[in-house]
């Protein structure tokens, strides 16, 4: 098992979804994401969600989340509510890619 610098096991899971929003679907996508993020925030083991907006006209958005352990994420993903919860988002997205990886090191920037 890999460890962080402090010697504790590296258990956190990071999940990154790259989604291509259909033309003209940005507001519908944002509305659907807003409903989903509130629900996911209450899931045991969920730590943080981030939504990244493209800085160009690619319509390629990024949703990233962190989980206490991979088991927390997979329990949620395989649960009965997961597919129904994400269904409204799928209307606004025509391509997705998912990456999942274990956090083995973190570097936090210096605070002024």
Short key terms for the protein model shown above:
Alpha-Beta Plaits, 4 strands, disordered N terminus, 112 residues, alpha+beta
Please count the helical segments.
3
**How many separate structural domains?**
1
The spatial strand order of the largest sheet comes to: 2-3-1-4
Task: Find the count of extended strands (DSSP E, 2+ residues).
Answer: 4
What would you call the shape? globular
**At CATH's second level, what is the architecture?**
2-Layer Sandwich
The CATH topology is what? Alpha-Beta Plaits
Radius of gyration: 16 Å
Largest sheet: 4 strands, antiparallel
Query: Any low-confidence stretches, pLDDT <50, length ≥5?
Result: 1-8
Write the layout of secondary structure elements.
Layout lengths: L12 E9 L4 H15 L5 E7 L7 E8 L2 H8 L2 H11 L2 E10 L10
Antiparallel strand pairs: 1-3, 1-4, 2-3
Helix pairs in contact: 1-3
Structure report:
Residues 13-101 form the ABM domain. This is ABM domain-containing protein. It holds the Pfam family ABM. It comes from Streptomyces inusitatus. It is a single chain. The protein is of the alpha+beta class and 112 residues long. The chain has helices at 26-40, 70-77, 80-90, and strands at residues 13-21, 46-52, 60-67, 93-102. α1 (26-40) runs antiparallel to α3 (80-90). It has a 4-stranded antiparallel sheet. The termini are far apart. Helix content is 30%, strand content 30%. It has one domain: Alpha-Beta Plaits. It contains 3 helices and 4 strands; from the N terminus they run βαββααβ.
């Amino acid at each position: 098992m890999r460890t962080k610098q402090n010697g504790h096991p590296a258990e956190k899971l990071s999940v990154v979804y790259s989604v291509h929003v259909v033309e003209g679907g940005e507001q519908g996508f944002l509305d659907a994401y807003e409903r989903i993020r509130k629900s996911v925030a209450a899931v045991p083991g969920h730590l943080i969600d981030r939504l990244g907006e493209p800085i160009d006209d690619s319509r390629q958005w990024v949703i990233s989340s962190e989980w206490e352990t991979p088991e927390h994420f997979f329990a949620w993903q395989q649960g009965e509510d997961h597919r129904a919860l994400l269904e409204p988002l799928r209307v606004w997205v025509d391509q997705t890619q998912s990456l999942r990886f274990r956090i083995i090191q973190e570097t936090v920037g210096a605070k002024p």
